[in-house]
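Side project, low priority. Logging it here so it doesn't get lost.
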Amino acid sequence: MSIVQEDADIQMQWTRWLTRRNTAARDHLIVHYSPLVKFVAGRVGAGLPSSVESGDLISSGVFGLIDAIERFEPERGFKFETFAVPRIRGAIYDGLRQLDWVPRSVRSRARQVEKAIAELEHAEGRSPTDEEIAERLRISTEELAKWLASIASTTIGPLDRAIAAGSEPAALDGPGSQAPAAVLEDRELSHLMRDEIKRLPEREKLVLSLYYDEGLTLSEIGQVLGVTESRVSQIHTKSVLQLRSRLVSAGVA
């Protein structure tokens, strides 16, 4: 079932917008594709605390939709929905950064786990186990699982944004900022992350691949691995924190 309903006039509206930049046509396109915003906001909101208002997510997502409409080039051969969804999602994550929705206590725990992972990796020359991390933090593995659960909502979304989410809020130029320096930094970060992901244990690599590359939900990944959704969430969170600790050590996060 398509998220966006059929509209016999939509091609005409695209023609009016693309050839004449007719604002009425753009407004028609925004309304027509608005279900995409609600859909993406719903997917993102499912992993967030109830304190985050869905209306805030939708408001941010609309900016991403407008940006997608203004940048869309049909001659490149992409379907608009395919082009728009990542931009809507990116605008929502940028909005979350500006909202500063991550509690300080959660950030503090994330930093403690990152530090423990970094120290253990340096000492052992490999990825640490949950038991080793818990021992380093002087907590039980059950308590570590609770910590990871509380941190989990900060590690949602595209991997680069997930890695950035636990840091202190930064000033942004706006949703989907495309400043040349920012684009270059994003490319370098992506390349570095790909290299670091290859060094993760096989299970962590599989979870990240299924989530980011294949688009599976945490529940679906749990079915593939034969574990609970909460366990997949913990593995995902630990992986992101591990990558973040490595990027911090490398001086790029």
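Brief comment: The chain has twelve helices and no strands.
Revisit when time allows.
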